[in-house]
Amino acid sequence: MMTDTPLENLEIGDALPERTHKVDWEDILKFNRYVTGGVDTKNIHTDDEVARKAGLPRAVATGRHPVSFITELMVDHLGFGFITGGEVDVSFVKLIFPGDVLTLKAVLKEKTPGEGATRYLFEVSLTNQDGAAVTVGTASGRLA
Amino acid sequence: MSDKPDFVWENLQVGMTVGERSLTVTQAMVDAHCEALGARREWYTGESPLGCPIAPPMIFINDLLAIYDANYKRFGTIHAKLGYRFHRPVRVGERVHQKVTVTDLYVKREKGWIVSELAVTDEAGELLLTSAHTSVLSLTRKHADDD
Between B36, B80, B81, which is nearest A30 by CB? Predict the structure, then answer.
């Protein structure tokens, strides 16, 4: 069940509200400029020909950028309890292409009470517009 | 012509330090990160629970590769897995130390794989963040040319 319920009331199997992120060319170029210190470069993320030479069908988005979609979702729900003691582990299972629309899902898998705080562990996934998972994993943090 | 070694299997060993560096996390760095990744939150520009701006958790998203690039000729990296442990937030203006080590090297399905770890500490040596990156690694320079 997808819910806006406060985390304390979530049951195992409940999902946080889904979010969608479109990964367009401008996002990819912006991220590339960021990691190169403001320089436009040709690589597998920005140039179809370079990508094809590397054996890819065309330019692909970096898998790292969408991980921040997951961490920001966790900060929204776990706040400081994610930034201090949070964890995220993901596998990149399918390529992300420019124009893909990714849906971020987070389903509560474990709720572990501890000293003064409960750890919430979510199964997280990003699926593309065809329903195929591109990134899967877990994210967790503590809530006092 | 760069005299840096190629980023290939034969030039890397488990346990080796790839590189280290220290830097100050500035508001300009945080702003550029937020702009590029679309991460917007008052904590990153103004008041946070620490009473000052803090960096987004993914502020060091490219630093492991940047340290590789400072020490190796790299031909592009395909990531398979990524893991982060956030120990405590980084304050804007804080000086941090970064160290990248190789934690595993293995061959699977005729491909080379490398697991690298970025550890970020504060000036007192307190651990702020660790991240583990698993990526494809060319076995030889010949393979790298083929990539």
Answer: B36
Strand order in the sheet with A19-23: A19-23, A100-113, A118-127, A133-143, A86-92, B79-86, B127-137, B111-122, B95-108, B17-24
A91 CB-contact burial (10 Å; exposed 0-12 / middle 13-18 / buried 19+): middle
* pLDDT, tens digit (0-9, with 9 covering 90-100), for A109-134: 999 999 889 999 999 999 999 999 99
- CB-nearest to A63 from B76, B79, B86 is B79
Q: Residue A105 is which amino acid?
A: K
pTM of the model: 0.92
Closest Cα in chain B, distance from residue A113 (Å): 19
Structure tokens at B115: 């697991």
Rounded to the nearest angstrom, the minimum Cα separation between A27 and chain B is 7
B41 to A75: CB separation less than 8 angstroms, yes or no = yes
- CA-based nearest residue to A104, from A54, A138, A70: A70
B66-97: per-residue pLDDT in tens?
Answer: 999 999 998 777 889 999 999 999 999 999 99
- Measured in angstroms, the CA of A47 and the nearest CA of chain B are apart by 13
Q: Is the pLDDT of residue A1 over 80?
A: no
Closest CA to B62 of A76, A135, A45: A45
ipTM (interface pTM): 0.91
Query: How many alpha carbons lie under 13 Å from residue B42 in its C-beta half-sphere?
Result: 6
The answer, for B82 touching chain A at a CB cutoff of 8 Å, is yes
Closest CA to B35 of A25, A34, A99: A34
